């Protein structure tokens, strides 16, 4: 059916074009021979093709454009005729004798254009006559194109101020009156198109009408270009007349398009001064009109205007632009009950952007907008509309981008309430946006109250809002989120130690609600932040001894002990052990022996009860030995207990090489250069001998199981420890012991079953070079090394 109609239309269009071209041909012949009578005859017949009602607007436009081109040639002929002495007045009357009204009016408009140009009559009189004559065509499509032609031929001949066709004192008003009348009539015709034809074709007709909208809109463009339209005329005449037509036509397509045209065509300063009138029309529009897009466009233009120059801002304050826009948006939302949430939030987002440009210092305005948004969202629950959530993210992001300071956003009481309406996924995205803003602008959150507000704001990342969603989250995304939170914790800082203590309490309260999956990410930065405060308090206590201090290192260590214990629920014993050792070292720096001992005790318990993996045990024991070596706060008894345990753990490692290395590392626990009371050569020697025995056992085991001796690297490593302590002055280590160990290494390396290892050979060669270097050095050191034979 549709295909048949399309084919028929093509035939009718083809027939129309053929008829038009034939008559145009004869018209050209008449023009060439200066035969005015025949020219008018054939031009009228040519224009009769435009009387058709069979064509759709799109096809009619094709026919019209061909006729338009021919009429331009005819206009040139009329102009030449007047130059040759033909009376334009007589010509104007002569064309009115055409038989059909439509060709007659096209010819009249064409001659009228030449008539105005001749200046034999005032432009306003000719235009008034033409506009009245055009009322004779009431068919929507034919009337629209006729008036479009009138607008086209007259636009450069309006009696505007400064124009060559300028008339008396009210000349601009005459021009405006002509354009407004033409606009009004065209809009009526355009709106009437919806009633042409059966109801089933309504969708098709609406599409056709949308294609013709520019014919009507061009009138507003012409109005915007008239020089004589100043602010007063725009306020008193142009805008009220245009809005009256827009409101009264009660047509969705027309109202939306024309409102958008008004906003785009006229200057921003005019909109600002007539804001009340323009906004007053919005609630009167049809409920189905997409008013949110219209208002958003208006606010975007005004925002850009405000941003263009600081000089225009006083005008915004003077006309109370914010109050008017705010009231108008409220009325529109109230009038359109069925407006989707997405539409309302879009309006509030646009108003917020406007406010941030015009009133960046008025946080109460920003909070007022957010409050209105909360009111609209109340009772809706979590939003599942992706368009609405996207707009809410834009709404919440705008203050962050403008102020570049989360402190400002935290002052907005309604900010967190808006976030509550985001679904869990989007809530996390918004929380990430907030954290990234803090990182990017290096914002320091310096009070416990702000930290509380911030953590409440980003609670979607701090704890599980919905337990069911936890498993659905991608592991990489989760890690990225929690790493962001970890970085945020490091940004929470103030020079006031008492306030910092409150911040630490606040952070701890929130991170402990995060569940076992989050604790490994959040506890370490919290612990290091707390340890920073410990060191600051320690330095303050040294400077102001005797004064009462609100927070003490001991208090913080108690908090840390309880917090690290929470990692047992994960479980993350290796991480907890590292943190216990860090705390023990910090307690040592504060000379808090009982506290340091307790942290070590907890580390040892974790090692014994929780850490069973052999690699993890090796790493842990070396961390324990390294930390214990740096401790100076322990008394003899406590130190002996801890070192004894450490050496015991070392000798119980699964692999012999690991045992050997851990045992010789323990030798450092008994010889500390900076502490004379911690130098025990006997126990150093005991550790090294035990390490040597283990290395021998490892060699024998390798020989028994693989048929070849194992690597001699352990012997070389022990040799290096011998040389280290020999230099440090451990009397129990003699030249003979070193010499025998060198010979042992050489013997093992030259054995039949030994597999050559370049790295081991290089290590031993480097050790011998070091001995030679010390011999060549001269002085006391050289005297010590000279007895050694390499």
UniProtKB/TrEMBL annotation:
Major localization listed first in the record, in broad terms: cytoplasm
Domain of life: Eukaryota
Keyword Electron transport: no
UniProt KW Protein transport keyword: yes
Keyword terms of this UniProt record: Cytoplasm, Endosome, Golgi apparatus, Membrane, Protein transport, Transport
Role played: Plays a role in vesicular protein sorting.
InterPro entries the record matches: ARM-type_fold (IPR016024), Vps35 (IPR005378), Vps35_C (IPR042491)
Membrane-protein topology: Peripheral membrane protein
Cellular component terms (Gene Ontology): endosome membrane; Golgi apparatus
Annotated protein name in UniProt: Vacuolar protein sorting-associated protein 35
Subcellular location: Cytoplasm; Endosome membrane; Golgi apparatus, trans-Golgi network membrane; Prevacuolar compartment membrane
Family of the protein in this entry: Belongs to the VPS35 family.
BP-aspect Gene Ontology terms: protein transport
């Amino acid at each position: 059916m549709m295909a048949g109609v399309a084919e028929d239309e093509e035939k009718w269009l083809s027939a129309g074009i053929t008829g038009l071209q034939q008559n145009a041909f004869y018209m050209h012949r008449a023009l060439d021979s200066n035969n005015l009578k025949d020219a008018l005859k054939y031009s009228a017949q040519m224009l009769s093709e435009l009387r058709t009602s069979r064509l759709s607007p799109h096809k009619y436009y094709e026919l019209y454009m061909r006729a338009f081109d021919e009429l331009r040639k005819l206009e040139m002929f009329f102009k030449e005729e007047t130059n040759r002495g033909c009376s334009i007045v007589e010509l104007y009357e002569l064309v009115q004798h055409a038989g059909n009204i439509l060709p007659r009016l096209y010819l009249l408009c064409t001659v009228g254009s030449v008539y105005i140009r001749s200046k034999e009559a005032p432009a306003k009189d000719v235009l008034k006559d033409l506009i009245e004559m055009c009322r004779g065509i009431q068919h929507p499509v034919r009337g629209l194109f006729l008036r479009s032609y009138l607008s086209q031929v007259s636009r450069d001949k309006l009696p505007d101020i400064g124009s060559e066709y300028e008339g008396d004192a009210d000349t601009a008003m005459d021009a405006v009156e002509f354009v407004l009348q033409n606009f009004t009539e065209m809009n009526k015709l355009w709106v009437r198109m919806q009633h042409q034809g059966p109801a089933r074709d309504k969708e098709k007709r609406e599409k056709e009408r949308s294609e013709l909208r520019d014919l009507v809109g061009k009138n507003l463009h012409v109005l915007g270009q008239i020089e004589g339209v100043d602010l007063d005329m725009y306020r008193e005449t142009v805008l009220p007349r245009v809005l009256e037509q827009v409101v009264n036509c009660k047509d969705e397509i027309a109202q939306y398009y024309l409102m958008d045209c008004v906003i785009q065509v006229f200057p921003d300063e005019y909109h600002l001064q007539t804001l009340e009138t323009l906004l007053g029309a919005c609630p009167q529009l049809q409920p189905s009109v997409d008013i949110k897009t219209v208002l958003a466009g208006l606010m975007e233009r005004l925002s850009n205007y405000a941003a263009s120059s600081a000089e225009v801002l006083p005008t915004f304050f003077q006309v109370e632009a914010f109050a008017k826009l705010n009231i108008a948006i409220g009325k529109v939302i109230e009038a359109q009950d069925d407006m989707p949430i997405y539409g309302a939030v879009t309006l509030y987002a646009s108003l917020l952007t406007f406010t941030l440009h015009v009133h960046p210092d008025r946080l109460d305005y920003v909070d007022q907008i957010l409050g209105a948004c909360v009111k609209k969202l109340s009772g809706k629950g979590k939003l599942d509309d992706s368009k609405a959530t996207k707009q809410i993210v834009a709404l919440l992001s705008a203050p962050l981008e403008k102020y570049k300071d989360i402190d400002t956003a935290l002052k907005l009481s309604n900010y967190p309430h808006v976030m509550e309406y985001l679904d869990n996924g989007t809530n996390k995205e918004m929380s990430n946006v907030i954290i990234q803003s803090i990182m990017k602008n290096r914002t320091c959150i310096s009070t416990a109250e702000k930290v509380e507000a911030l953590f409440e704001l980003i609670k979607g990342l701090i704890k599980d809002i919905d337990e069911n969603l936890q498993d659905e989250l991608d592991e990489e995304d989760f890690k990225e989120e929690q790493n962001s939170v970890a970085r945020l914790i490091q940004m929470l800082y103030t020079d006031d130690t008492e306030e910092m203590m409150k911040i630490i309490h606040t952070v701890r309260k929130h991170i402990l609600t995060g569940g076992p999956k989050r604790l490994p990410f959040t506890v370490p930065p919290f612990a290091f932040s707390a340890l920073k405060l410990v060191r600051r308090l320690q330095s303050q206590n040294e400077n102001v001894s005797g004064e009462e201090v609100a927070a003490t290192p001991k208090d913080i260590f108690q908090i840390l002990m309880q917090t690290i214990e929470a990692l047992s629920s994960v479980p993350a014993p290796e991480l907890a052990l590292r943190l216990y050792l860090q705390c023990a070292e910090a307690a040592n720096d504060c000379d808090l022996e009982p506290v340091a001992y307790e942290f070590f005790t907890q580390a040892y318990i974790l090692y014994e009860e929780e850490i069973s993996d052999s690699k993890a045990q090796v790493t842990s024991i070396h961390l324990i030995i390294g930390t214990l070596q740096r401790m100076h706060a322990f008394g003899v008894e406590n130190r002996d207990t801890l070192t004894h345990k450490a050496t015991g753990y070392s000798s119980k490692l699964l692999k012999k090489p690991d045992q050997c290395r851990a045992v010789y590392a323990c030798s450092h626990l008994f010889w500390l250069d900076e502490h004379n009371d911690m130098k025990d050569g006997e126990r150093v020697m005991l550790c090294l001998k035990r390490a040597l025995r283990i290395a021998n056992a490892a060699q024998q085991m390798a020989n028994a199981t693989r048929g070849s001796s194992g690597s001699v690297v352990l012997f070389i490593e022990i040799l290096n420890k011998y040389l280290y302590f020999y230099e440090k002055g451990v009397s129990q280590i003699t030249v003979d012991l070193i010499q025998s160990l060198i010979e042992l290494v050489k013997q093992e390396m030259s054995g039949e079953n030994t597999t050559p290892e370049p790295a081991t050979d290089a290590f031993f060669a480097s050790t011998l070079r070091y001995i030679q270097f010390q011999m060549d050095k001269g002085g006391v050191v050289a005297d010590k090394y000279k007895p050694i034979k390499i």
